[in-house]
Amino acid sequence: MTANGKSRSKLFSLAAARGRRDRTPARYRPPAGLSVPIVTVLDGAGRILVEEQRAVVRYALQGAQIIFAAGTTGEWNRMDNSRRQLVARIAVEECRSAAAAGKTAEAWAGITAPTRAETLENLDHALEIAADAAVVAPLSIADVDDPVEFVTHDIGKTFERRGRTLPIYLYDNEDIAAAGKSPHLHTRDVKRMSQLPYVRGVKVTSGKAVLGNYTRAAAHFKKSGDFAIYPGNAYLIFDLFRPRAGLRGRLRSGWNRYLTNGALPHGVVAGASNLMPREWRRAWEVCLASDFALMERYGAIMEEFRQAVESPDKGKKRTIACLKAGLKHLGVISSDAVADGTPKLEADERRVFIRRFNELRRRACITLEPEWLSHWAAPRPPTRRAALQDA
């Protein structure tokens, strides 16, 4: 196909996708607030521990407004499709149970897989389980050369075949880009994909400059509030929302406004919220309110956690292993095994992290609002009488 022919094909596909607008939930608005990119609980053989996976979601729901399953923190790139789909289904089921009890959170299914076919299979599954949204990282799919064509044509065709859609969120993270791919989505491509009725936002794991590329262009994506930007580098919110004093502060505030064009994030995706869901939800709220005093207190605790998970070996990202070790320490899970390929904690590293985590929790009890401290009460085993009745 010629370059002009390929261009016409893309335009035709985009027009066809726009024509499916009436099948997209018209009243859907991207949720604001905290997204917890949930960890995947594995045993030593790499099998998902279903009941403990449910426990992790329930623990996160005390603060989460979004549960994001099968993302990078969930080790999607080190699992097969059956496991990706299982953790997505558990997230949906637990969010539905929570909604029945009056606690509302959306369940987002990560659908990214190494190949186009597997990714579309995961999209089919997300539709089948009625996930609230699906998240896709087009640059992480090895055999997808054109993100716009994939999101427009392949995803659009899947929706057409199934006769319904669900919101799609793009995912931009250079750490998981497939070999030979650009580290970040081009803003012009995001603009084009945003014209699709089902593309509702993007999660950006990057520094402030790349995030600024998105926020400056956000006004051109969709009308206000219809296209949401969620930073995956959660610690940025303390800088982006911080009120400034003095000449230096005003200069820094002006630089932030230039980078973001005044368009602040819609929510935040915080890996650390697996351990501190209530604290991170409150941190987002106080940042949004520009409550400087509380921002200082919550920011100090979050920075202490970031330092606790840092490895002396700068090439070793041990965050996932630390999150699982912390959840095991709290009694939420019994296995802190990580998938093959995920950096592990050595015994001495685990001891050091748990010591620092305990110190952080003690400091949080003193400095933070008591009603915003995460807690976990393990389910009680059934009494003998109840067990006999169930039998």
- Profile the largest sheet: 8 strands, parallel
Count of helical segments? 14
Radius of gyration (CA) equals 21 Å
Measured between the Cα atoms of the first and last residue, the distance is 67 Å
Structural class: alpha/beta
- Spell out the helices and strands N to C: HEHEHEHEHEHEHEHHEHHHHH
- By CATH's scheme, which homologous superfamily of the domain at 29-289 applies? Aldolase class I
Low-confidence stretches: 1-23, 258-262, 385-391
Query: Which bin fits the share of residues in helices?
Result: 40-55%
Global mean pLDDT? 86
CATH architecture of the domain at 29-289: Alpha-Beta Barrel
- In terms of DSSP E residues, the strand content is 5-15%
Q: Going across the major beta sheet, what is the strand order?
A: 7-6-5-4-3-2-1-8
Offer a concise description of the structure.
With 391 residues, the chain is of the alpha/beta class. It is built from 14 helices and eight strands.
